[in-house]
Task: inverse folding
């Protein structure tokens, strides 16, 4: 082993990630990665606009306004909020529909926290759009890598990586914008260890709390970096320490070498290339099964009376999230339950040949025909799955006339191995944004995002207000 590798091994994960984020320049990032990053941001903004008038968005806005005012921009609103309150709400707006991007290995919705912290801090600091984009990339690379090292372990322990791990990425994204030196950026990660949070209890009753997690990660990251800027000291081994992230938030310890996933290939391999975009507004774990059901609808024109029973094969680790407990999954009581329900999503695909935001409305959820088919859906663990690289899905329909109809999706649409194109992302942005703004306004926003690296950050803020 050479001297450089010896030195890297001696460093903590916090030190290595701090060094990366402190030294990163936008010119170091391949042009294709920069373009993809801007399109991921565009996707997130479209989702924020689609969410503006929904109850959890208006409720959160009212709560933040009651807590105080400020000068920070909230997507789609003329009202300004205090800096951290704006981050909280902007994260909620991006993530609430569960239609936002996901890093497959890290199982984390990374843009929903990375963009609010970079955007609102860059606006306050009057930073360039290039600096905003660089901070966003720092946050994305860190959160996705830290999540990947856990190999879904956070989920198994009941924690939501989007909030939990996103906080660490946000701490370093904020540190980059604040110009912190390496030592202070290391402290920021130690500090945020005491703030990072997010649990999966919302899965039991469809509570709204998941929607807060990415915005809270942004708040925690900005707070930690600011404390570090003023000399506050955090633990040095935030990740691998005796009471560090991986020791406390997983049921089983990391295997030998897993910790290195968090830093392997920093600045050479770009995890943003592994970020998947959602073609349908539901948990990524359901997408392949949804597409399989839609394919069967289109091929066979199935009606409810044709279907005797349905078997859906999904990756084993996803079963507790999208298939169990069976009763509420077969009869979701609200939109969030529906987004995590293999029975409802597959039944909708088989009968309607689609799954869109309209299928999350109360009228759609109350459709007794869809409910009847959902009650006939059971699940099995997919023994041939390539999870977590791919979120596979197979739908097997047994018809009343004795046929067995099967369709399998081995690679989920939108994944890094079957990605949506940048053109697809632009089209998705317009579909979502135009639910609440005009085409002209959406075009101004799109132009501001895609030229972000050539303009001041406040130019984008003006377009979004």
Result:
């Amino acid at each position: 082993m050479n001297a450089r590798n010896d030195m890297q091994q001696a460093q903590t994960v916090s030190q290595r990630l701090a060094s990366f984020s402190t030294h990163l320049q936008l010119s170091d990032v391949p042009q294709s990665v920069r373009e993809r990053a801007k399109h991921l941001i565009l996707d997130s903004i479209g989702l924020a606009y689609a969410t503006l008038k929904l109850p959890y968005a208006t409720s959160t806005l009212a709560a933040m306004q009651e807590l105080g005012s400020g000068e920070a921009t909230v997507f789609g609103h003329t009202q300004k909020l205090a800096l951290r309150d704006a981050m909280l709400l902007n994260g909620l707006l991006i993530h609430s529909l569960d239609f936002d991007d996901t890093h497959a290995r890290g199982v984390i919705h990374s843009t929903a926290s990375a963009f609010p912290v970079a955007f609102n801090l860059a606006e306050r600091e009057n930073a360039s759009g290039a600096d905003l984009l660089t901070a966003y990339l720092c946050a994305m690379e860190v959160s996705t890598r830290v999540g990947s090292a856990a190999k879904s372990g956070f989920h198994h322990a009941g924690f939501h990586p989007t909030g939990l791990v996103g906080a660490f990425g946000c701490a370093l994204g904020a540190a980059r914008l604040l110009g912190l030196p390496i030592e202070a950026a290391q402290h920021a990660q130690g500090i945020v260890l005491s703030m990072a949070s997010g649990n999966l209890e919302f899965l039991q009753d469809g509570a709204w709390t998941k929607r807060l997690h990415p915005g809270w990660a942004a708040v925690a990251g900005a707070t930690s970096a600011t404390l570090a800027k003023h000399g506050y000291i955090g633990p040095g081994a935030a990740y691998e320490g005796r009471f560090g992230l991986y020791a406390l938030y997983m049921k089983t310890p990391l295997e030998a070498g897993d910790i290195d996933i968090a830093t392997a290939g920093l600045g050479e391999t770009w995890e943003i290339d592994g970020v998947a975009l959602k073609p349908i507004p539901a948990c990524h774990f359901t997408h392949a099964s949804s597409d399989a059901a839609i394919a069967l609808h289109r091929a066979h024109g199935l009606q409810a009376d044709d279907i005797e029973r349905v078997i859906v094969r999904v990756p084993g680790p996803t079963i507790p999230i999208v298939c169990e407990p069976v009763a509420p999954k077969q009869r979701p009581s609200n939109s969030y339950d529906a987004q995590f329900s293999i029975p409802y999503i597959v039944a909708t695909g088989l009968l309607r040949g689609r799954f869109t935001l309209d299928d999350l409305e109360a009228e759609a959820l109350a459709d007794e025909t869809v409910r009847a088919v959902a009650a006939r859906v059971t699940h099995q663990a997919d023994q041939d799955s390539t999870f977590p690289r791919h979120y596979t899905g197979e739908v097997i329909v047994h018809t009343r006339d004795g046929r067995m109809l099967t369709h399998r999706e081995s690679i989920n649409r939108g994944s890094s191995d079957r990605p949506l194109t940048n053109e697809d992302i632009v089209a998705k942005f317009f579909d979502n944004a135009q639910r609440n703004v005009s085409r002209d306004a959406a075009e101004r926003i799109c132009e501001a995002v895609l030229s972000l690296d050539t303009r001041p950050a406040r130019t984008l803020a003006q377009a979004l207000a």
User: Anything to note?
Assistant: Residues 1-7 have pLDDT under 50 and may be disordered.
